[in-house]
Structure formats: structure tokens, C-alpha cells
Amino acid sequence: MNTDAIDAVLQAAVASGAVPNVTAMIADREGTIYEGAAGSRVAGGEEPVSADTHYRIMSMTKMLATVAALQQVERGALDLDAPVERYCPEFGELQVLDGFDGETPRLRPPASKATVKQLVTHTSGLGYWFFNADLLRWEAATGTPNVLSGSTVIFGAPLVADPGTRFEYGINTDWLGKVLEAASGMTLDVAVKEGITAPLGMHETSFAPTDGQRDNLVPVHLRGEDGAWRASEIELHPEPEYYAGGHGLYSTPRDYLRFQRALLGNGEVDGTRILQEATVQAAFSNQIGELDFPAAIRSADPASSLDFAVGPGHKWGYGLLLNTQDIPGRRRSGSGAWAGLCNTHFWVDPTSAVTGAVYTQTLPFVTPEAYQVYLDVETALYASL
Known about the structure:
Elements: H1 3-15, E1 21-28, E2 32-39, E3 55-56, H2 61-74, H3 84-87, E4 96-101, E5 104-108, H4 116-120, H5 133-142, H6 172-184, H7 188-200, H8 211-215, E6 221-223, E7 229-231, E8 250-251, H9 253-264, E9 268-269, E10 272-273, H10 277-283, E11 296-297, E12 308-309, E13 314-316, E14 321-323, E15 336-340, E16 344-349, E17 354-359, H11 368-383
Antiparallel strand pairs: 1-2, 1-17, 3-8, 4-5, 6-7, 9-10, 11-12, 13-14, 14-15, 15-16, 16-17
């Protein structure tokens, strides 16, 4: 493969100011075939980023939490078709946000009971403030912080749609973590460590980084008025009240690649199996039926995320965005992917037998410049396969 072309993409991305720093990792079923990086851990600093630099992987946490839940399904401890309230009775108290009377939220009972599978597939009706203006307005009206606060008060947020009626990206995987804890008798951090990170040797991945790992963490960068990147003080709560299955993990590109390789290997990497092959196949299969992943999700909070537009022809599996057609010059049909709010992205392409990831730490999510780096890395890879 042409590693020089990928190196050039990373160097150009930093030189142009598209991102302050970037790391990329690529593997096939045998192991790592590319790792590269460009830029400094702190913009303007001397310490370079690398495959061993720590990142907030944010929503790339979701796939690990999903796999941990699927492990409980395989063991018979968790039923995907059961109502969520079987495991978390408080979920049954949630109402659907049905508009506002002035500034007063109008709530009604949901038309059906959400299932555990609907949490896994983001079809339960739960939302996120940055993609749903009504939920953002509800948070303001009620004084409720968003999910990044680390407070359990977020579990009182209403649904924004009836269960099963549409794909609505939201705090589903945070609820899934609570379900897993109730079903397994383990806290989510223990379930992830015992079921995934310890067996795979992912010793740099955790919900609670050590002091040394925090010192190795890339700050979240923001653009100044002059367009230059500057490290910010933005941080997740250091002592959250719950383990956030939706966004709480910190990891390194090299560590996370072990997990990607396990997905690419139908649940097994280097002789260690974390999921049955049939479960992995289900994860890479359409699990939302006639519903579609939206061609474009509009931003409700441009400081957090811009519009996320992947185009038509996408479905959702178990924790993965699935493209249903080959993307010319890029991933093949049936690939699974997702991303994190601070602009980390990964994909797994079983047909081409490759998996890759691109990391930086900036806000807002999916600026055209940052997203183009991801696309350019992928394009450079597939041109050399």
C-alpha cells in the first residue's frame, strides 16, 4: 500500500490548518498496516501526537458498550426484545415531548414501550440536544444540563418521538449501560474491562484515566477569531455520577485498533474471541427494518456539531452506521462505522478486509475541513489496495 499518500494527507491537513493535529491507523485481518500522525498534542507545542496519544473517543464509546451488552445477550442475561423498564423501571416514567405551551414543555405518554433493541438501534425516541432543537429548548426550560454534565439528572430527559417510529440519535447507549448493569450485576466499567479491554490488551482504554494518561491527552481545540487553533479548557466531568456508555471512554488509536480488528475478525483477534461470529454478523446487518438513517441530520447547536450529512442509503446495525451501497473509491457495501463528537472516526469494511480510524480533538463536530481529512485518508488507502 502507498503509505506516502496517507502521510501526505495528514501533513497537508495540519499545514493547511484543517486540524491542529491528526493520527490515523489502518489494519487488515493480520495486523496493523499503517500508523501515522502529524501535528502537536497542544497546538503550538513541541510534543507530537502519535498512535499512543490519548483521546476522548466520545461516541466511539458506544460500540464498546454495545458489544458489552451483546455479550450479556449471548450469556442469556439480557433480552433485546424485552421492554427497557424490565431492567430499569424508571424508564417507564418517561414521557414524549410533544411541543410547548409558551415556554412550558407539553408531555404525553409514549404510544408503545421501548425495547432494549431500540436502545441499541437509536429507535427508542431518545435524543441529543445538539441534533434536536426541541430537546435543547426543553433543557433550557427545565434547567436540565446536557448529557456531558456527568449528572444522572440526564436520565429524566423525555423522548422526542414514539418508540420505533424513527431513527433519532440520542442518549440511548447511556440507558443501555444502565440496562446492562441491572442485567449483569456489574458496573459498566467492569463489564467493558472484563469483557473487552482486558482480553484484548487495551490497557490504555478506560472511563477513568490515570494522571499519566491525562497528561498524554490531547486538549479539545477551538478556532480563535483569527482562525488559529488553541487548546481549550473543555473537559468531561472528572468524576461523573455514572459510567457513560454513550461517550465516557478515553483511549489511544493503537488501543482502539485492537477493538476494530476484533470486529473485522468476526469477533476474534489474535486468538482472543469477544463475540460469537453470528452476533458480529448481526451487528453488521440492518436492524432498523424499513426505517432509514437520516441522509442529513440538522444541527441544533452549531458550537457542538454542524449538520451531519452522510447522504441516502444508510441503515443502522448494532452500534454501527451501515452503508448499503459501495462508495466509489472508498468503503464497500456493508461496512460499519461511527464517530465521536470531538472528531474521531472509525470504519470497518469486512468485504475489503480493512479497518481504519482518524483522530483529532476539535469542536464543533464534522466541520467540512475535519471531515474531509477522514475522507481523504480513506480515499488514499483504497487507491492503494
